[in-house]
Amino acid sequence: MFRALWIKQWVQLRTLRWVGFGLGILLPFFLWAGAGAARRGWFGFKLAGYDLTTLFAEALPAFCVVLWCLLALMFAAQTFAGDRADGTDRFLLERPVPPARTWLARVLASLASTLIVVLGHTLYMLALVALVTDGSGAVFYKNLLLATSAGIGLALLGTIGGMAAGEMVRTPMQAVLIGGVLAALPIGVAMFLTAAFQTVSIFGVHLGFVIAPFLPLAMILMSYRAGCLGEPSGRGRIKRGVTILVLGLLVTPALFAVTTPFVLRATVIGAWPQSTAATADRAVLLGGGYRRSGGWMIDTEKKSKIRFLPPPVTSVAWNDDGSILAVIHLSGFLGSIGKVKLELIDANGDTLRSDALQSHRWWLADFRVQWAGERVMVIERYDERTRISTVDPNEGVVGEFVVAHPVGGVVRLLGPTDSGSIYVHSLTDADPRTYSLRRLDMNELVLEEPLLTEDGDLPMYTRMSISPSGRYWARGWWRTETKTYESWVIDLETGMRTDYPNSLIEWLSGDRQLRTEWIEDERRLVVQDGVDTEILTRRFSSKVGGTVSPDGRRFLVTVWSPGTGTTDMPKRVDGLLIGDGSDWTELQSLQDDLGDGSNWSIRWGGPNTLIAYSLSTTLVADAKPGAKWTAVLGRHP
Amino acid sequence: MSATALHFEQVTRRFGKKVAVDRLDLRVEPGTILGLVGRNGSGKTTSLRLAHGMLHTDGGSIRILGLDPQNDGLELRKRVSLLAEESSLYPWMTVQEILDFGAAVHPNWDAKLAADVSGRLQLHPQEKIRHLSRGTRAKVSLVLAVAVRPELLLLDDPTAGLDPLVRREVLQGVLEAVSDEGGAVVYASHLVHDIERVADNVVFLDEGMKRFEASVEHLKDTTRRARAVFENGAPDALQFDGKIDAQADGRVLTVVAEDPGRDLDRRLRSLGASEVEVESISLEDILIAFLRTEAGSEVANV
Q1: Same domain (yes/no): B25, B49
Q2: What is the location of CATH 2.130.10.10 in chain A?
Q3: Does the first or last residue of chain B, that is N or C, have fewer Cβ atoms within 10 Å of its Cβ?
Q4: Which residues from chain A sit within 8 angstroms of residue B74, using beta carbons?
Q5: What is the b/e burial string over A358-386, where b = at least 16 CB atoms within 10 angstroms of the residue's CB?
Q6: Residue A290: what pLDDT?
Q7: Closest chain B CA to residue A99
Q8: What are all long-range contacts of B110-118, with beta carbons under 8 Å and residues at least 24 apart?
Q9: What gap in Å lies between CA A419 and CA B29, rounded to an integer?
Q10: Which residues in chain B show pLDDT less than 50?
Q11: How confident is the model at residue A597 (pLDDT cuts 50, 70, 90)?
Q12: How high is the pLDDT of residue B302?
């Protein structure tokens, strides 16, 4: 029975199929004629020129994709509404034929017709491309096959739209028009969700594109329910179909709303510490993605999550004692992009205050936040200006000033130092251009006279730091020729500069310098009192890196196995050392259950805590020998 | 075959606000032919489509060959055929193709019977349906309907608009095919002559309601028409048992009445008629008399 039903539907579509083939065959000639007419200015604009390769290998597939979608719509509309329009639908309804079999035969016949036309057109286009490119257009073949794949996807949508509409209306033409709207609906919904809720992506795919396919499924169900259930003569058909469509339209956003919180959280399973409190067990983990990441506020002592920070989080900063977290974010309703806000959150995750920030550039707004003693500094960079605002946790914005600089100029805020001073390093508008380092008067909110000026031609993107007391200023940049950092330290009291070739410098408490040096094949870690006495030197035969703890009292040393330190990500961590700056502790391997250390990065999660993170997991452990790693995000491997 | 072929009990069906069938009771026994008579829009087609499960009821219950059309639609359509006035044949098929297709979609298809009936009706297998006359299309539909050996055949005015010869052929085909098998037929038509020829019982439908039901033979045997002459003019109101309709025209009164005792002549003379002429009448005339009475009573009720 099914074979007879299928053949009947297939034969009924033969005229439309031939028309479809014909249109595809004529399409290149229409394009050719259209391009020729456009070059003569007959369309109200003048095409500068064209060539057959562009026309047939690039433009034609795009036009064919549209044609296939339309043909699929027509095949389905004719198959599902044609008999009703002719009054011949009663033939099958009056016989012992299960409606589901008729429905399935119609689905398969319209799909098969679409596929055969797509296949025919694709072969025809391949021949055309071979003709115009003399068989050398491999890239065009690839494009053509990609277009065919996309075309099949869209044609499938067209079929679904046509079959849903075809079961609801009386004539194929109505079904084509309504089916077109239905076919566009999932794409429209996906585009809307993508545009309105920009941050809800997982593995690079927006949730809208995952949820929207439920609509075509709803349309298939709609077609089935309308055509196969209830009274054969059709009473209630439209009601049944529309009910499913409406349910689909309601369920889709509901599903989106329900799954969004999970998706937002799922994107930060392999997050890394972005800010840690200097003297408390609090950290913020942020996931990847430029300004799209969400994050978690965590308690590193209890190794537990406190509060989720929905994306996009632009900048975070803990105050020293970990009592207040300052967050700048643009998160709106359900992962949408809202206004730029500064939110102050206490250690328990409760919001203390939330203030909208005036932004000069919405969405592309470039905001950073950091603490200066009891106040929050909000730094916004836009065009040729950097605006720095100070926010009192109780009173809100208490003042602001603007630093002018050339376009692209970077303004850095360094500090605060132990005494609470903030230094501003920026490229000035002066001629010749210079960099200047100035102290910020926190009471008056004005920049003091420059402590030093530098040649404006120095590299813009460098690593720089101020020592805890504010006496020393270190600057280092990557030298491509030697593939090492080049650093110097300037004593701001005396103005004396000390150069440290092949070195990178960080600061420990008490103005002790932690320097990593490259000397031929040897790596050295040096702890030095300011720029004077070397307190400690350790030598390594392989790549090594040091990271200072948030309180500046200890540093973490990562040692790569020999021969593997060619990339930033250690392929194997041999051992981790914790030094307190005055002397080494014993060599302590903290990798324990991290396997061979592959794909793990380790950073400080607080003064007494380490955080290890990979793509899918974030672990926390006490920074002491024998500590065990505990998963706070993702699963322990 | 022992179950009642068709049983409607207080069946109601609406289309929007319009009541197409109103609390209808029908009963058809196997081996009998029921004629459904009524004007256009009286509910004949709706009743047949309800019986075939194409429409669902809004009230009451239907059993067809012991089956519920609403829930046992597929099984029912294996055993019941519907032959409608309007063709639902695919115009692009040939006669042979549509017979083959009909065979493929019906498990009870009898190819030999189909060939016999096709031959008798002189159908040409290679002709396209779209090129056939209305009468020939009706014949093709008839083959499709009877070749599955239905236990109940529902005829929805299949001969309407056909010339008398074709009508006769089609009706003959139906009767031969079904009566041989002992099947039942419900024949809905407004062509009362056809009903009179083939039906055992007749039901008159009007505005979805059953106005009356009777055996055709009994109705024709017991209903007669008399022309009575009253010397002093025909009385305006004449009441006697069994009167269906009476029309006065001067001195002549034309009466249609039930006359099971064949004493209409005597009864009219006893009421003062000087001359009485009694004759048998056709089913159509009987129905017209009933209709006139219905209309009169409705006016009277107003």
Answers
A1: yes
A2: 281-446
A3: C
A4: 96-98
A5: ebeeeeebebbbbbbeebbbbbbbeeeeb
A6: 53
A7: B74
A8: B110/B147, B110/B148, B110/B149, B111/B147, B113/B146, B113/B147, B113/B149, B113/B177, B114/B143, B114/B147, B117/B142, B117/B143, B117/B146, B117/B147, B117/B173, B117/B177, B118/B143
A9: 109
A10: 1, 297-302
A11: low
A12: 21
Mean pLDDT (chain A) is: 85
- Alpha carbon of A121: minimum distance to chain B alpha carbons (Å): 27
Question: Is residue B291 situated within a structural domain?
Answer: yes
Q: Say whether pLDDT at A571 is over 60.
A: no
CB B54 within 8 A of CB A233: yes
- Residue the block writes with tokens 């709106």: A332
CA distance A106 to A84: 13
As given in the structure block, the two tokens for residue B39 are 């004007």
Q: Which of A63, A55, A50, A179 is nearest to A121 (CA)?
A: A63
Q: Where residue B29 sits, what CATH number does that domain have?
A: 3.40.50.300
ipTM for the assembly: 0.87
- 3-state class of A535 per DSSP? strand
Right CATH for A281-446 from 2.130.10.10, 3.30.390.10, 2.60.40.2470, 1.20.1640.10? 2.130.10.10
Q: What is the pLDDT of residues B46-69, one digit of tens each?
A: 999 999 999 999 999 999 999 999
CB-closest option in A91, A96, A235 to B74: A96
Inter-residue contact A253 to A239 (CB < 8 Å): no
Distance CA A548, CA A538 (A): 16
Are B231 and B198 found together in one domain?
no
Q: Label residue A134 exposed, middle or buried (CB < 10 Å: 0-12, 13-18, 19+).
A: exposed
| Predicted pLDDT at A60 | 83
Contact A341, A377 (CB under 8 A): no
Strand order in the sheet with A313-318: A313-318, A324-331, A337-346, A351-356
Task: State in Å, rounded, how far the first CA of chain B is from the last one.
Answer: 47
Between strands B184-189 and B152-156, the pairing is: parallel
Look up the pTM and report it. 0.79
Please say if the pLDDT value at position A511 is more than 70. Answer: yes
Whole-angstrom Cα distance, residue A547 to residue A273? 13
Distance, in Å, from the CA atom of A505 to the CA atom of A14, rounded to the nearest integer, reads: 77
Q: How far is B203 from chain A (nearest CA, A)?
A: 24
Name the residue among A8, A87, A96 with its Cβ closest to that of B88. Answer: A87
Q: Are strands A630-633 and A472-479 parallel, antiparallel or unpaired?
A: unpaired
Top residue of B52, B76, B90 to mutate, by most chain A CBs within 10 Å, is: B90
The more confident residue out of B51 and A43 is B51
Model confidence pLDDT, tens digit, residues B269-292: 888 888 889 888 888 888 888 877
Kind plus residue range of the DSSP H or E element containing B142: helix B134-146
| DSSP 8-state code for residue A56 | I
Quote the domain boundaries for residue B254. 222-301
- How far does B53 lie from chain A, in Å, by closest CA? 8
Across the interface, which of B56, B81, B88 has its CB nearest the CB of A88?
B88
Q: How far apart are CA B263 and CA B247, in angstroms?
A: 20
Is 80 exceeded by the pLDDT of residue A458?
no
Query: Apex CA A270: angle with CA A507 and CA A592, to 5°?
Result: 70
One domain, residues B44 and B192: yes
Of the pLDDT bands very low, low, confident and very high (cuts 50, 70, 90), residue A569 is very low
